[in-house]
Each structure stands twice: as structure tokens, then as C-alpha cells.
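Chapter review: from sequence to fold.
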Amino acid sequence: MKFLSRPAAPGASAAGGELPSRRREHDTRAPIITRRRALLITGGVAGLLGLGWLADGLAGIPLGGSSQQDHVQQAGLYHVRLARTALTTAVTDATGAPATDVQARFALSMPAMAMDPVILTTTALDRAQYRAWVAFPMSGDWVLDVTLITPRQRALAAHFDIGVR
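The C-alpha cell string follows.
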């Protein structure tokens, strides 16, 4: 009796054999990466690495000009110029002439650290210039306080912020 037999499973023939199927429902193979997709991924990774290399190279260039520029601060009627090559100061009076009648003292400190200021030995150069040699023990934000002692023993101060890399 044909009406009591079970219907054939999908994809099966009446003779009991499997019909060829175009779609596999349980394919466990990993998806295939095409050559175009692999080239796009490789190019993207290379582009990101190149961008990082460029950013790293540009990070060393100071913005706004040279970092060796002089700084000028006012101490009373005097102008104190700091050249960053060896902590050299030039002291001038209100007219711009070298102030040969003052003495300069340097104190170096690092506000971010709880440490006492380091008193630097200054050497008087010609034409109201003073120099102190210093080896910064660590990078960070340092402060140089220049104290000028006038002929009347009045102490005037100039303050310089120095960033050390």
C-alpha cells in the first residue's frame, strides 16, 4: 500500500539515493579569504604602520620654532635673559645697557618633586653675564630662580620655567 509508506526525505530520490545538493547546510570549513581581501588587509596594516612611523618622526620636531631660543624676565628695572645652552644669563638695566653693578645667584628646583632647591655656582662673565653649568638628573619641569643683588643689597628675583626632555 502506497498510501501508508513514509514520504521521501528532502533531497532523496524514490530509489533511495541522494540527489546532488547545491547547498550544504552544515559546512564546517573556514571561509575562504580572497586575494583581493588579503591585499586590502595587508595594505591597511602597512598604511597604519607607516602613519605611526610618520607621527613618531614628527613628534621630535618642536612646534613654534627652535627650542634654543632665549627667555627674558624682568627683575625690578633689570632684564634677565636666559640662554638655554648652559644656563647663561645676561643682565641689563632699563636702558638696555649691561648692568655691571649687580651680582647674580642661581637656584634650580623641580616643583613636582618634594626637594630642596639646588644652589648653582655662578661664574661672572664679561659684560654682566653669568653662567652656571648644570646636569639635570631627570626630565620634567624645572624652575630656575635668578636672584640679583643690587649695590644697595636689595634682592630682586626672576623666575624661569625650563622643560627638560
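Two observations follow directly from the output. Residues 79 and 96 are 8 Å apart (CA to CA). The chain has two domains: 31-61, 71-164.
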